[in-house]
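sorry for the late reply, my laptop died twice this morning and i had to redo everyting from scratch. anyway the thing you sent over, i finally got around to it. pasting the sequence first so we're on the same page, its 314 residues, then the predicted structure underneath. double check i copied it right bc i was rushing
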Amino acid sequence: MRCLVTGGAGFIGAALTNRLVRDGHHVRVLDDLSAGDPARVHPDALFTRGDVRDRPKLWTLLQGVDCVFHLAARVSVQESVLYPREYNDVNVGGTVSLVEAIRDVGVKRVVLASSATVYGPQDVQPVREDYWPHPLVPYAVSKLAAEYYIFALGELNNIETVALRIFNAYGPGQRMPPAHAPVAPLFVKNVLSGASVVVHGDGSQTRDFVYIDDVVNALIAAATAPDVNRAVINVGSGQETSIQQLIAAVGQVTRRQPEVIHNRQQSGGSDRLVADLTRARQLLGYQPKVTLKEGLRRLLDEDPRFSRKLEAGK
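ok and here's the structure:
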C-alpha cells in the first residue's frame, strides 16, 4: 500500500508512519513541524515539510497514493479557545484543501483522525457514534466540521471516507507543552520528579485512555476494511477511568506516592466520557489490547524522558 500521512511527524502520526514502514508499506509524510519532530519519523519514509493547505505540494505527494491518513491538525482544546480562527483555518480549511487535491489526483480512500471531543457532555455512557454531538470548544467544532466535509466531498467525488473518533490517546513520545499537557504523561512526569499532581475538580471525572499502539491498529485497519465508507468509528479502550484511578495507577507503576493538589476553582471538563466500541469491533475487527497499567509501564520503559528519571530514582 502507498500512503500519505499528513501530520506524520506528530505523536500519533509518527507512530502510525513507523508502523506502516515496518509493515512494508511505502509511506510519504507531510508535516509543518508546528508540533511534530522529524527525528521521530522512520528514515525509510519520505518526509516533506509543508502545510496541508498547500495544494500544489499535495498534488505532488498524492501521485500514486492508495490511502491518505489525515492527522494534520491543531490539537489543543485550550489553545483553540484563544485562537478559533487559526483552528478553523488549519483543521477545516486544511481538510477541504486535502480532499480537493485528492479529488484532482484520484486517491481511493481517506482516513480522518477525528476526536471524541466532538461528543461533548452526554447523559448516557458509553457513547455511541449515533449520539448527537455537542462540541463545546472550537477544536471540537473544527473536528466535527472536518468529518462533515470529508463525507460530503467524498460522496460527491467517489472517494471512500472514514472518520475515527479517537479518545484520550497516550504513549511514548507524546508532546508535553508547558501549558495544558495531556494528563497521562504529565502525571507520570510530576510523580517521577517529585512535583505535585494538580487535579481540576474533585478527580471523579472519567475518561477513556487508549494506548498509542491500539490507536495505530485501528487506523491501519480503517485503510483497508470493507463497508466503512462514510462511517464514524470510536477508537478507545472501552474502559472508563476516573482521574483518581489514573493517579493511583501512576503511583503503582512508578512505585512512588503521588502528592495530589485539588484545584476546585477550575472545571475538570465533562463528568464522563468513555467509548462504545461495538461498531469498531464489527467494522474494523478492533480489540484494544493494552490495559492502562501496561500502557503506563510501556510509557516508563520506552520513553527516555521517564525511563532515565525512574532509573535515577532507584
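The radius of gyration is 19 Å.
thats about all i looked at so far, will dig more tmrw
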